[in-house]
Design brief:
The chain is an all-alpha fold. It has helices spanning 4-27, 30-48, 59-76, 90-96, 100-111, 116-123, 127-145, 155-166, 172-180. The protein folds into 2 domains: 1-81, no CATH class; 83-166, Arc Repressor Mutant, subunit A.
């Protein structure tokens, strides 16, 4: 039988990055994302009670719990949101300006790479509702990306948007260029500039 600390360590090793990236996009800053993850861990361990589950929860279940916390906190604050900092790149400003459900859908698809079925599990919605939410969010983000994004967007275009969300400063471009000169390295993905239009 796995102990709570061992199971928690296993969950965070497997899904910690995904949980943090999603939390960051949901709440908009590192401090609040850290607080959200602390609350998430506290709630998770409390839900286990005396004995943790025999197998760790899957990632969509963990993300569903994370999103549920944000929904609950947002409901308590009666839809009040902090003003966005002025120094954000246009794409981040657009993403963080979206309603919570749309930000969550964007995070699940572009950052976590989820398909509609897994997104529906994490958002506790049916696939049709998730598709509608996602299309609405992508259309709202299109002007900030400098591109027209429709519900029939290509995977190549999604890669560019994902790269801008995950690495807005383009710091990973250096790593891609270095990796490109190594033998047998995959081709470098195109980098995009978020701040320039």
């Amino acid at each position: 039988m796995t102990t709570s600390p061992a199971l928690l360590k296993q969950i965070l090793a497997a899904h910690g990055d995904s949980l943090y990236r999603t939390a960051l996009l949901l709440v908009g800053n590192e401090r609040d994302a850290g607080r959200l993850l602390q609350r998430f861990i506290t709630d998770l361990v409390a839900a286990w009670g005396v004995a943790p589950p025999a197998t760790p929860p899957d990632e969509p279940s963990l993300l569903a719990a994370l999103i549920a916390i944000v929904r609950g906190e947002q409901a308590k604050r009666s839809q009040q949101r902090r003003p966005l900092p002025n120094n954000l790149p246009p794409l981040y400003r657009s993403v963080l300006g979206l309603p919570l459900e749309q930000r969550a859908a964007i995070a699940l698809m572009l950052i976590n790479g989820y398909d509609l079925q897994r997104m529906a599990l994490a958002l506790a919605q049916d696939e049709a509702a998730v598709r509608t939410t996602l299309i609405t969010a992508m259309r709202a983000l299109a002007p900030a990306t400098g591109q027209s994004i429709t519900d029939r967007v290509s995977a190549d275009l999604c890669h560019e948007v994902r790269a801008a969300l995950v690495d807005p400063a383009g710091r990973c471009a250096i790593v891609r260029r270095c990796a490109a000169i190594l033998p047998g390295a995959p081709p470098a993905a195109p980098s995009i500039s978020v701040g320039a239009r």
